[in-house]
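It would be a great kindness if you could assist me with a short task in structural biology. The matter concerns a single protein, recorded as an amino acid sequence and a row of C-alpha cells. Could you please explain, in whatever detail you think fit, how the C-alpha cells follow from the sequence? Thank you for your consideration; the sequence and its C-alpha cells are set out here:
___
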Amino acid sequence: MAQQKLYAGAKLREMRTRLSLTQKEFAAKLGVSLPYLNQMENNNRPVSTTVVLALAQEFGLDVTELSTGDSERLVSDMREVMADPVFARDAPPMADLRLTASNAPALARAFLTLHRAYRQTHERLASLDEALGREDARIQASPWEEVRDFFHYCDNYIDAVDRAAEHFAGRLDPRSAAVAALEHADITVAWSDIDGLRSYDAANKVLHLSNRASPQTQLFQLLLQVALLRQNDLLEATLDFARFQSDAARSIAKIGLANYFAGAAMMPYQAFLEAAQSCRHDLELLSTRFGASIEQVAHRLSTLQRPGAKGVPFFFVRVDQAGTITKRHSATRLQFARFGGACPLWNVHRAFETPGRFLRQLAETPDGVRYISLARDVSKPGGSFGSPVRRYAIALGCEVRHADALVYADGLDVSNDSAYEPIGISCRICERPDCHQRSVPPLERRLSINTDQRGVLPYEVN
C-alpha cells in the first residue's frame, strides 16, 4: 500500500508563529530552502521525512501531532453543516472542505460560527413570541455550545490542568490529598443528607457533601471543590487563554476545568496510563484500582492525549434515553453529530435494554474506517425512595487496529468483513443507500420515488 503523504501546512505555520520565527529562520533550522518551506506551509508540498526528523530533534515535537488535530474535526463539522437544506444546491465537494480545513482553519471555524448564528436566528424566529419579550435576545453561540467546542478542539486534553492534578495527587491517595488540602485551608467537610451532591458555605468555610451519593461521586466532588478553591489561579489563567464570549460560558468552562482536575487527580496520568495498558483497558479493573465509576474511567481514557505519552485514541460519548448526546469527545476519526441524535444502529442505544452489561460491536463508518465500540448503561439513582433516576448510556471505542490493546476485543472476529455493522454520523450526511433505520434522505444523493412500489423506505437512494 502506498504511503499517504503528510500535508500539515497549518501546523507548521502555527508552530513557527508560536516560536516567533520568520520563515527564513525556521527554514534554516529545518535544513530546507525558504521556497520549500513556503510550499509546505501552503500545502503545495507534503512535509518531507527530513523535516519531520528535524522537527523532532530541533524542537522536540511529537510528530504524531502533525497528522492529527483540528483538520478531521473541521471537515466533519463542515460536512454536517453543509447538510443543512439551505446549502442543498451549493454544497461543495469533500475535496474543497478538506482543503479549507487544512489550508484555512480560521476561515472554517468562522464559517461554523456563522452557521451556528444562522441556526439560532432561525430557531428564534420559530419562537418569536418568547424572543420579543426578552431583553437579552442576541445572536451568539450558546454558552454550553461554546464550552463544548473549547474542549472539543483542545482534544479534550488540558495539559497544565492535567499535570497540576497529577502533581497534587503525588504519593497520597486522592482522598487523603483532598482532605489535607482542605484542612490546610481551614475548611471543614460535613457529610449531610442534602438533595444535591455538594454545597460549599464560604462564610463558615464548611463543605457539605451528600451522604446519599456513591463513594466515587463523593470523592469526585471533594476533588472538584479542591480545584475551585486551591487551583483557582490555574483555572482562571486557562480561562483567560480561551477568551470566551460571555461570562456564562466562562463560568461553565470553569466548572468543566474543575471537573477535569478532579478526574485527573483521581486517575493521575502516568499511573492510569500504565494501569490501562497493563490490564488492556479493562474498565472494571480500572474502576476498582482507582476508586472511580465506569463512566469516570471511560471518560478519562478518552483524555490520554499527552504529547509524547499518548494512550490509545478513544472516542467517548454519553446519550440519554431520547438519544440526545450529552457528552461527546473523539480522539479518533469518528466525529459525532453536532445537531440531532446519534446513529440508531450504534450499540449505545441498545445498552438501555441490558442494564449492567457491556455490549460489544464491530462497526464500520461510510468512509470505510472500522471501530470496536463498547456500550453500557450508567443509571444514576437519586439516593432515596421517590427520587428520580437519571438514565444514561455510554460508549467507548477505538479503531479496530488497536484491538490487541483491548480485552473487549477477545473472541471477536475482527478479520471477518461480515462481522462489521454499518453505522453513520447522522442521516443527512450518511450516504448509505439501503439503511433500514434512515429517518431522512441523504442530502447529497438523488432519490427515486415509485408510487407503485414500497420497500422499507418510501424512496430509493441513487
Q: What stands out?
A: The CA atoms of residues 50 and 415 lie 36 Å apart. The radius of gyration is 24 Å.
